[in-house]
Write a structure and sequence with these properties.
The chain is built from 13 helices and 24 strands. The protein is an alpha+beta fold. A 5-stranded mixed sheet has the order 16-19-22-17-18, with no helix packed on it. Strands 2-10-7-8 form a 4-stranded antiparallel sheet. The chain has a 4-stranded antiparallel sheet with strand order 15-23-20-21.
Length: about 425
């Protein structure tokens, strides 16, 4: 069995360990990004819901240390021990309850340190107060500095970082691809169903920029309706005309470990890509059944904007409404509507409850919609459905890559599995 790498104090592997300012940032609607604990999860920096401060307060928060690419950010509490790396070309500063780690390149490869901190061995040390054995709720700087880090020679560190980094890079590539596909789908929905761009182009004798067989599906004028001007031949109706709620409850005693469960905690904001779910073996309350391809809408605090397409069959929280199109061709239009800012804002205004506001299907179904002829719905679906299928495929690939990464990481960090040190050198030469 290979020898275990020596353990070295974190402070001996870093050029700098800097605590965050102990003050609440001044929040702004735009400006310089402030990294918050909620942005760091599973070794990744997630800026899908960014927070900002202005230039003056950015400078104030950067006095102790100015973050640069390759620095690590570690959360000290709520939650404790989450870590990420600052990417290239990101200008940002620390929020609260976090610390910056800058690896000493003569002793420690920064990306290796990122993975070492994520290992169960180091996470255990973070969770347990040294010398007392008691679980701590926050990570004090002296304890952080004394953390024992598995530390093989630098060439081996680079090789480990190369193997795990290649998996993470592929995961990030898939995530970025899904984000791009979502943006494409949103743009097309808005163009066809909100702005009526093909119709307006014809009205102004412009090329709609569509294949002729699709352009011919759109009229050349708008007509008055109770919804305002809509394309000629379209019907002023409501969301319930093209969509319905699936109401299939499942008792807790009918749910086992093989059943996949999606709760609101698994649903990201403002993204239809659902990356996470868990086994249903610990479920103790009734749930709702859904099928792969169903649209899941978080009805609790709808302003959180949690709407996604199920990539699996399973059960979900009863605070999630399962939506299905009334006919197959309407899937993409239903998805575009349900995930739009206007629809979410509409449901939020009609939600009931002060502390825990919830929307309901009857209000959602009443949302005013201009419904096009079935040929337009089919044409739209023929473009968007393949994008949704690519997203689902990418989600499953990412989960496989994550499982491989999570299997390899502890074995590589602990020295149970060794990779040739030359691998790290070749990777650096290639990049």
């Amino acid at each position: 069995m290979p020898d275990k790498p020596p353990r070295v104090r974190l402070s001996d592997l870093c050029e700098q360990i800097t605590d965050c300012p102990h003050s609440t940032p001044v929040w702004t609607n735009a400006g310089v990004i402030v990294i918050r604990n909620q942005n760091i999860r599973n070794g990744r920096l997630d800026l899908s819901t960014p927070s900002y401060t202005d230039e003056q307060h950015f400078e104030q928060r950067s006095r102790r240390a100015r973050l640069r690419a390759g620095d690590l950010i570690l959360t000290r509490e709520a939650p404790m021990g989450e870590v990420c790396m600052v990417p290239q070309d990101l200008r940002c500063c620390l929020g609260q309850r976090m610390v910056m780690l800058r690896a000493d390149p003569r002793k420690c490869h920064s990306r290796f340190l990122l993975y070492a901190i994520q290992s169960e061995e180091v996470q255990h040390e973070i969770r347990v107060n040294e010398g007392t054995g008691s679980t701590v709720s926050n990570l004090r700087i002296p304890l952080l500095e004394a953390l024992p880090i598995p530390c093989p020679p630098l060439p081996e560190q680079r090789a480990i970082a190369s193997v795990l980094g290649a998996l993470d890079d592929k995961i990030d590539l898939n995530r970025r691809m899904c984000q791009t596909l979502e943006e494409m789908a949103r743009a097309l929905f808005k163009s066809w169903f909100v702005d009526f761009d093909p119709v307006r182009a014809k009205m102004e004798s412009r090329d709609p920029g569509l294949p002729k067989e699709i352009a011919d599906l759109f009229p050349s004028r708008l007509v008055d309706s109770e919804l305002g001007p809509i394309p000629e031949g379209w019907t002023a109706s409501n969301f319930g005309c093209i969509a319905e709620a699936r109401r299939e409850g499942v008792a807790a005693n009918q749910i086992d470990a093989a059943t996949k469960y999606i709760g609101l905690e698994h649903m990201p904001r403002r993204s239809i890509s659902l990356w996470e779910w868990e086994s249903g073996d610990a479920i103790e309350s009734n749930k709702s059944r859904f099928a792969k391809g169903d649209i899941l809408f978080g009805k609790l605090r709808p302003y959180f904007h949690k709407v996604g397409v199920a990539p699996i069959d399973g059960v979900c929280s009863t605070d999630i409404i399962v939506i299905q199109p009334k006919n197959r061709a309407a899937f993409s239009a239903v998805l575009g509507l349900a995930s739009s800012d206007d629809f979410v804002a509409y449901t939020d205004k009609r939600s009931a409850g002060t502390r825990m506001p919830r929307t309901n299907w009857s209000d959602m179904a009443a949302y005013p919609v201009a419904v096009p002829p079935s040929a337009v719905l089919s044409a739209h679906d023929s473009i968007i459905r393949p994008l949704a299928e690519r997203i689902a495929s990418a989600i499953h690939e990412v989960r496989l890559l994550q499982a491989l990464r999570d299997t390899l990481l502890p074995k590589l960090i602990a020295g149970e599995v060794r990779v040739p040190a030359s691998l790290g050198s070749m990777q650096e030469m290639a990049s």
